[in-house]
């Protein structure tokens, strides 16, 4: 087997392998968010606050509709990594071709849903009339490119399953530059407003999908993709569904609560919507910086379960939790300290900046708890218990946030943006504790 673009996590230094895997993932996530933030900044600076609010009001809805299928990409990563650890060439091949087929089929389904239901759902989310037409236009164009997004995510999940995190980074970097140039051309040059940002995203996502597919076609190991074998293998499909569907449901539960939160934010007007959108964009940087280690945990646990090296799993989880917590605490503190300067990248409106700071003051310092929450959840999922993280998310984030917004927020004395924002750190604490209990329970059975 060609080992040029592989990282075997079943041997060697745990911390060293974790860094080798995680640093390119962190760079990839960081670059992706830099370019996504550039989208928001271009809209805010050159198209106005209404356009910025229009893009921001779509974020939670986009996540809701695509996260179910993005969870299947996690299933792809877990199953492919497990077979890689077990050195099972035949099952790796079946997983590769099944995953690509799933990505294309699911992408087409999401596109149809997005095209037909965008405006209706935006209205149900209490999107203000001022930004509704722009939001609906942005959303329809965005969903036309979802198949390419799915293909890239599934393809990069396959590459990460064998420890290859560098080449997805190169693809993402070039696609991000391409996206930024198109943004400047469409929004500033052609005055296309939110439609320009949406089309730039679709084109750059297609670019990424094509290149990751080329990489898989050119692979000389078990991860080689051949169009002649394009099919869904029943056994591989069931394996991916068993791991990926619960992961997708977990993401959907997050998104349901976020949609409800976004609906509540939409009641406070354009300035808060725009400021919240800018703060969320910055918050995503913190999530994805920590996500490098949580993604490493998923692949590490899956490979070692396949190889039967359960002792390494226990050590790795401790190392990953510490790396995630330290990284999140440092990054969250720095972002909060320089919050006003960072928000000014998106807008010069002082009201919007103050609205963004109101969210940052509540969510940025404790965001390391969110990283711990995901790290423990991926550990449980990686060792083969994909349902339990869903239960913890359902209790800690979905049920709690729905209750908080539906009951506490509705009380006149608590009907404020602060009450909305504080639901995030409270839900992270609850979910982290539930995940810790599940992990300690399953850890004693690892043999």
From TrEMBL:
GO biological process assignments: monoatomic ion transport
InterPro entries the UniProt entry points to: MATE_fam (IPR002528), MATE_MdtK (IPR050222), MdtK-like (IPR048279)
Membrane topology label: Multi-pass membrane protein
Residue intervals passing through the bilayer: 21-47, 53-79, 100-121, 141-159, 171-190, 196-217, 317-337, 357-376, 388-409, 421-442
Keyword Iron-sulfur (UniProt): no
Primary residence: membrane
GO MF annotation, one: xenobiotic transmembrane transporter activity
UniProt entry keywords in alphabetical sequence: Antiport, Cell membrane, Ion transport, Membrane, Transmembrane, Transmembrane helix, Transport
Protein origin, superkingdom: Bacteria
Species of origin: Treponema bryantii
GO cellular component: plasma membrane
The protein's name: Multidrug-efflux transporter
Signal peptide (from-to): none
Cellular compartment(s): Cell membrane
């Amino acid at each position: 087997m060609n080992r040029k673009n592989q990282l075997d996590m079943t041997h060697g230094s745990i911390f060293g392998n974790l860094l080798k895997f995680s640093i390119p993932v962190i760079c990839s996530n960081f670059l992706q968010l830099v370019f996504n933030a550039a989208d928001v900044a271009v809209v805010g600076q050159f198209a106005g606050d209404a356009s910025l609010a229009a893009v921001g009001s779509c974020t939670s809805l986009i996540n809701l509709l695509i996260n179910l299928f993005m969870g299947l990409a996690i299933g792809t990563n877990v199953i492919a990594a497990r077979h890689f650890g077990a050195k099972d060439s035949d099952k790796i091949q079946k997983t590769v071709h099944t995953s690509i087929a799933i990505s294309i089929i699911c992408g087409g389904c999401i596109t149809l849903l997005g095209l037909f239901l965008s405006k209706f759902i935006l209205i149900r989310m209490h999107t203000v009339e001022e930004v509704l037409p722009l939001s609906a236009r942005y959303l329809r164009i965005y969903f036309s490119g979802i198949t390419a997004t799915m293909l890239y995510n599934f393809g990069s999940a396959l590459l990460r399953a064998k420890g290859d995190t560098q080449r997805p980074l190169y693809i993402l970097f070039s696609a991000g530059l391409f996206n930024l140039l198109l943004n400047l051309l469409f929004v500033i040059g052609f005055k296309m407003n939110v439609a320009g940002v949406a089309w730039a995203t679709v084109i750059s996502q297609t670019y990424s999908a094509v290149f990751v597919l080329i990489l898989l076609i050119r692979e000389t190991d078990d991860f080689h993709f051949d169009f002649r074998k394009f099919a869904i293998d029943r056994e591989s499909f069931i394996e991916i569904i068993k791991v990926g569907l619960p992961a997708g449901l977990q993401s959907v539960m997050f998104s349901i609560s976020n949609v409800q939160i976004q609906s509540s934010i939409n009641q406070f007007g354009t300035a808060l919507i725009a400021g919240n959108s800018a703060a969320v964009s910055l918050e995503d940087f913190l999530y994805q910086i920590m996500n490098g280690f949580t993604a490493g945990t998923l692949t590490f646990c899956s490979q070692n379960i396949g190889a039967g090296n359960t002792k390494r799993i226990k050590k790795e989880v401790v190392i990953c939790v510490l790396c995630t917590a330290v990284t999140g605490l440092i990054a969250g503190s720095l972002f909060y300290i320089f919050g006003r300067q960072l928000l000014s990248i998106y807008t010069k409106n002082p009201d919007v900046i103050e609205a963004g700071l109101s969210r940052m003051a509540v969510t940025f310092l404790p965001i390391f708890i969110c990283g711990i929450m995901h790290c423990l959840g991926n550990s449980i999922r990686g060792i083969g218990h994909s349902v339990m993280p869903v239960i913890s998310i359902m209790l800690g984030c979905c049920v709690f946030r729905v209750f908080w917004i539906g009951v506490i927020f509705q009380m006149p004395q608590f009907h404020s943006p602060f009450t909305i924002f504080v639901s995030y750190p409270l839900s992270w604490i609850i979910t982290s504790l539930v995940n810790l209990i599940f992990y300690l329970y399953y850890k004693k059975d690892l043999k």
